[in-house]
Amino acid sequence: MSEETEAKKPAAGKRKLQLDESLLGYKGVWVFVEHERGAIHPVSLELLGEGRKLADMLGVELAGVVMGQPGDTTRSFCHEAFFHGADLCYLVEDPLLTDYRNEPYTKGLTDLVNKYQPEILLLGATTLGRDLAGSVATTLKTGLTADCTELNVDLEARSLLATRPTFGGSLLCTIQTLNYRPQMATVRPRVMAMPERDATRSGRIVEDKLGMVESSIITKVLEFIPDEMQDKPQLPFADIIVSGGRGMKKPENFKLIWDLANVLGAEVGATRPVVQAGWLDLERQVGQSGKTVRPKLYIAAGISGAIQHRVGMDASDVIIAINNDPNAPIFDFAHYGIVGNAMTILPALTEAFKAHLATARKAG
Amino acid sequence: MHIVVCIKQVPDSAQIRVHPVTNTIMRQGVPAIVNPYDLYALEEALRLKDQYGGRVTVLTMGPPMAEAALRKAISYGADDAVLVTDRVFAGSDTLATSYALASAISQISKDMPVDLVFTGKQTIDGDTAQVGPGVAKRLDMQLLTYVSKVRSLDTENDEIVVERRSEGGVQVLKTSTPCLITVLEGNNEMRFATMANMFRASRYPVKIWNKDEAGIEDVTKTGLKGSPTVVSKVFAPTPRAVKAEIIQCESNEPGDLSVTLLAKMFNKHPKLEKEIAKRAV
Ligand SMILES: Cc1cc2nc3c(=O)[nH]c(=O)nc-3n(C[C@H](O)[C@H](O)[C@H](O)COP(=O)(O)OP(=O)(O)OC[C@H]3O[C@@H](n4cnc5c(N)ncnc54)[C@H](O)[C@@H]3O)c2cc1C
Ligand SMILES: Nc1ncnc2c1ncn2[C@@H]1O[C@H](COP(=O)(O)O)[C@@H](O)[C@H]1O
């Protein structure tokens, strides 16, 4: 791990690490299984993979929490959770849970927590997960660490070590929730690796009731307008990404990026200044205030490698950087670096890939 | 109609540097700004006021210097400003912050009942997006997060219809006021300050409340004591053990790059080559 600094004196040492008697009963790791329109959000599966590790370290069970309308789909989500590592699932089915609304979901999840008492509760840092996590944590009066990039446990204190960027991503900090349970954390999509799916696994389903009536819920869903999927880039799940930064100089030069992307069947990404200048859509911004990506190949052209960009693409398998400044920070964490003018190197690289792939394909 | 907008003063993190040797934050000279996301919330509130009338109160919890953020908000057109500041609040995490803000909002509503509470999507220093939901729960208000647009407001029947960004689409929600809304950025770019408002801001007497004036009943719920989470370690991201392998390609010729970069890379990552060959056109 990284070097510790003196930026802030650890406060944990001064605090009582021994858990209060009343909290000793809290056992097990839970993952809230988020789904939309018939499919589990991938972040929940990634969290099950991570939750499995935490549960094994603590020697406890891993549970998925599935809430939704009654029917086969919700039940199939429980099985999907088992395939991705869960030992059991808590299932709350109710027509009131058809669309996400804060009130019934907060009640459903809070009731489950109070009844079955998990020590750790993980949710995706999605619009839904953040809405729900903040409400549940405040209702339960417990701690919540948002947007974690790393999870671990301190076995002695049975305490979750939740690491997240701080100060605009310039530093990382590890946060603990002492003497409150459950310990809650959210994690953004693609930050954790997707676990292998094992369709031979199974588990038990524990069912529970929501216990609400529609007339008691104040907020009503009038309409849902789905995004038009075809023109929305799915950056977080792209296998190959070619990104451009301010070093591309003008929007027209992004043609060089698109050319390379087309040859590779890649998505196009960008840094924040590029998006703020309006050269590309916000959906394409990679980084702390954009998307987190983990492609197999990430090509960065004219990108300095600021920490806020880095945290969004650090997990890429292979990173190629093109920058005319040999001291650009991106060369500190890229795998391959080309020092030079992106305007000439990008077309050359596009041609090189084209030729290479043609030969590779012929060879079988 | 009365809207309270929660704003926070934050260090301009674009200008924060980490000391290369000690790995500590160099805060000196880093300017303090209004959290950029909160300006969208304030603008949305000002637009509703333009349309429906009423008052906009800005609220912040922070050190005495946070008064500057409130003055800025007045210059944009907010009517009133409240700074909640007290030593007991030092070290607050999101749970403790939401308690202090919720208490203050209850106090504010004694002067004029509060119909809407707005917050930004998130702060750029804390960056949790949790304070809004926390305040809503503490005030037992309906919570609408990630709202991109207020479609309509019915002040007679205390009803509001909003568009909420959710995963994979937009939810159109109707709820009763009072409610708390976390506002998304959109076309609600902050207006320019007028001369009249700038003048007003320079002379406006910001209300400065200590814990008692903010209606804090239980100090154990504030500051470090009221915060379940503690920072146990702060550190700089690890540099990768090995730096990038610099590819020499003086000529920038495609043939050159094939040898220097692609052959080398695919030799090391054969799966990647197959993957690309499979998908590329
Ligand atoms: C709260 C906060 C959140 C942020 N979130 C994000 C985020 O999500 N994503 C993000 O990307 N940024 C984010 N930023 C901004 C971030 O700090 C950097 O400013 C940004 O990433 C820099 O973008 P850049 O690399 O394109 O531009 P620059 O830093 O200006 O780098 C341009 C690079 O191009 C190189 N160059 C110039 N000409 C050429 C050429 N002809 N050929 C090759 N190379 C050339 C230069 O050497 C330089 O290294 C955030 C900042 C803050 C404060
Ligand atoms: N100290 C504070 N004073 C006033 N408002 C705050 C404070 N902290 C957070 N907020 C509000 O809560 C939102 C979310 O903050 P955060 O949970 O820190 O990302 C911000 O955009 C602000 O509107």
CATH architecture of the largest domain in chain A: 3-Layer(aba) Sandwich
Q: Roughly what is the average pLDDT of chain A, rounded to an integer?
A: 90
Total domain units of chain B: 2
CATH fold call of the largest domain in chain B:
Rossmann fold
Strand order of the largest sheet of chain B: 11-10-9-12-8-1-6-7-13
- The helix/strand series of chain B, from N terminus to C terminus, equals EEEEEHEHEHEHEEEEHEEEHH
List each distinct ligand once: flavin-adenine dinucleotide, adenosine monophosphate
Q: CATH homologous superfamily of the largest domain in chain B, by name?
A: HUPs
Tell me the β content of chain A. 25-35%
User: Within the CATH hierarchy, at the fold level, what is the topology of the largest domain in chain A?
Assistant: Rossmann fold
Order of helices and strands of chain A: EEEHEHEHEHEEEEEEEEHEHEHEEH
The figure for the number of domains of chain A is 2
What is the class of the largest domain in chain A in the CATH system? Alpha Beta
The pLDDT mean of chain B sits at 90
Which regions of chain A have little confidence, pLDDT < 50, spanning 5+ residues?
Answer: 1-14
Tell me what you see in this structure.
The complex is a heterodimer of chains A (364) and B (281). In chain A, helix 3 packs across helix 4 (127-140) and helix 5 packs parallel to helix 8 (342-363). Chain A folds into 2 domains: 4-216, HUPs (Rossmann fold, 3-Layer(aba) Sandwich); 235-363, 3-Layer(aba) Sandwich (Rossmann fold), CATH 3.40.50.1220. The longest helix of chain A has 22 residues, at 342-363. By secondary structure, chain A is α/β, with parallel strands linked by helices. In chain A, a hairpin with a 4-residue loop joins strand 9 (159-166) and strand 10. Chain A contains 8 helices and 18 strands. Helices cover 28% and strands 26% of the residues of chain A. Chain A has a 7-stranded parallel β-sheet, with helices on both faces. Helix content of chain B is 31%, strand content 28%. Chain B has 2 domains: 2-221, Rossmann fold; 243-281, no CATH class. Chain B is built from 7 helices and 15 strands. Chain B has 281 residues and is α/β, with parallel strands linked by helices. Chain B has a 9-stranded mixed β-sheet, sandwiched between helices. A two-stranded antiparallel ribbon of chain B has the order 2-5. The chains are: A alpha/beta (364), B alpha/beta (281). The structure holds flavin-adenine dinucleotide and adenosine monophosphate.
